[in-house]
Amino acid sequence: MKSSIKVIDPGFYTSIQDNGRYGYRSMGFPVSGPMDKKSYVTANKLVGNLNNEAVLETTLKGPKLLFSGSCFVAVCGAMTPVFKNKKKMELNKPFFCDLGDVLEIGVVEKGFRNYISFSRGICQEKIFKSHSQYYPITENATIKKGQNIDFSHPINLEKMFIKKIELNNLIFNGELEVFQGPYWNNLDNELKSKILNTEFEIGSNDRMAYRLSGVNIGNKISSLSASVIPGTVQLTPKGDLIIVMRDGQVTGGYPRILQLTENSQSVLSQFRTGKLISFKISEYDRFLLKEL
Amino acid sequence: MNFKTNFNLFGEKTLIVDFKNKIDNNIDIAWKSELCISIQKEFQDILEDTIFSLSEITLFFKISPTKAQKQKISNFIHSFSLKKQNIIRNIWEIPVCFDRVFSEDLFIKNDGNLIICESYISEFLKCIFEVHHYGFLPGFFYLSGLPSKLYLPRKANPVKSVAPGTLAVGGSYAGIYPQTSPGGWNRIGKTYYSFFNRKKNPPCYIMPGDKVKFISINIEEYQGCIKKIDHNIKIPKSSSFEIIY
């Protein structure tokens, strides 16, 4: 029998994610990859994996998994109870799962998404150079009940204990750092200050986009279809804001007013409906621009 | 090719190259798409993706770009623009059934007036569209070239499920849904061809800069064809043409 993990219960919305799918945006492929990249990277480091190794990304409630092979596992991201054979395990700390062990990730207590890494990697056939699940590029958008997920390589013990790993604490402060987007300076000063001084409530959200209900701006903006990237904040004619996330479209028709820093994208990914957020302009891109 | 470029940072790792053509503000699509392909090939070590839209090219860097890299790309674009380019593209003939069952939205928009619907379709069939860029969904290409009298504003409330192969109009663009998805564009017809196959590499065969003509077929022809078509091999009729810059 092949060593693998069997999905007993897939959880609320659990998908396989690696670093993302690059090189296909010109055909309309979203880039995909982990929503909270910081937690994804930490989870992989903790078990000695390379940076682009595939992991499981959970949302709200995690999966129940049965091991038919052994490896080290780490769970990072949201504050969530983790159980191995009903015994509570620690987050952000690798532990060993043996053949027959059952790993269960509960419902988040704080935060929204968890990353489960496996020291033997998880192997799904790569589709267009990535393991990341996104329907219709991959057959399914999420893992399914009864599915077997194979390991991809042996454990690399040396790498596992080689260095001290800095853990990042989850941030629950709703102030997100942003850069000015291409359209920002086309807005009048009144609207700019309104946007920077408003607390927006997160509405519906998923891997494609976070929608924020908005400021009243009147219908005075227009823009032609242009490229958008994860973290782009678009302003709709109604005055709502749409923040593009990892499975978002490659082009959008609304003005791109702000751009979340990569770090802010990770922070936002741990928020859900109802959370209040605000924007703070970062000068870091001015610094980068000087180098150009 | 006579134009100015302007580089702007977008996020930490992305550069937007703004194209301002001195003549008509709109640099040709086929040329832009070839330029993107060439940039991607030349700079694949530092770039992970390159796309273009109406007046800009977007360069996705693996890590934050440096001054030297920007300069190299800028020079590359300049020398590309000075070279003579012979670009081969295709004109496609896509059969579409405009039967009532597939043109629900057009019918509703015109309060059920069949004469207006028919005249809309006959005007639509006269158009030669140009494939602009891919976006919205994998394999969804935007077709430009609709005369303004045929514009249909996007629906205020998108429908939950549009069938693959549906031809629809959203504002000034036409497009064909590659897979079942929610959609806010107005459905006007349906084709039995598929334009996206995830089991093939490349998964799309229609290129930016290609031209598209639609041919009207009736419901019997549509039903006859959809039964026997093998999406893995069958693509619509096309002939190639050359564009010289």
List keywords for this structure.
heterodimer, A: 292 residues, 2 domains, 7-stranded mixed β-barrel, 5 helices, 21 strands, B: 245 residues, alpha+beta, 5-stranded mixed β-sheet, 4-stranded antiparallel β-sheet, elongated
Structure characterization notes:
The complex is a heterodimer of chains A (292) and B (245). Chain A is mainly beta. Chain A has 2 domains: 4-160, no CATH class; 175-290, Cyclophilin-like (Cyclophilin), CATH 2.40.100.10. Chain A has helices at 37-46, 157-160, 189-196, 262-269, 284-290, and strands at residues 4-9, 15-17, 55-59, 64-67, 71-79, 82-84, 87-89, 95-97, 102-105, 110-118, 122-123, 148-151, 175-180, 200-205, 209-213, 226-227, 232-235, 241-244, 251-252, 256-260, 276-281. The longest helix of chain A has 10 residues, at 37-46. Chain A is elongated. The termini of chain A are far apart. Chain B is α+β, with helices and mostly antiparallel strands. Chain B has 2 domains: 3-83, Gyrase A, domain 2 (2-Layer Sandwich); 89-244, Cyclophilin (Beta Barrel), CATH 2.40.100. In chain B, 23% of the residues lie in helices and 35% in strands. Chain B has helices at residues 29-42, 67-82, 104-109, 114-124, 219-228; strands at residues 3-10, 14-21, 47-52, 56-61, 86-97, 129-134, 141-144, 159-162, 166-170, 173-176, 181-183, 186-190, 211-217, 237-244. Chain B has a 5-stranded mixed β-sheet with strand order 7-6-13-5-14. In chain B, strands 1-2-4-3 form a 4-stranded antiparallel β-sheet, covered by helices on one side. A 3-stranded antiparallel β-sheet of chain B has the order 10-9-12. The termini of chain B are close together. The relative contact order of chain B is 0.18. The model of chain B has no long low-confidence stretch (mean pLDDT 90). Classes of the chains: A mainly beta (292), B alpha+beta (245).
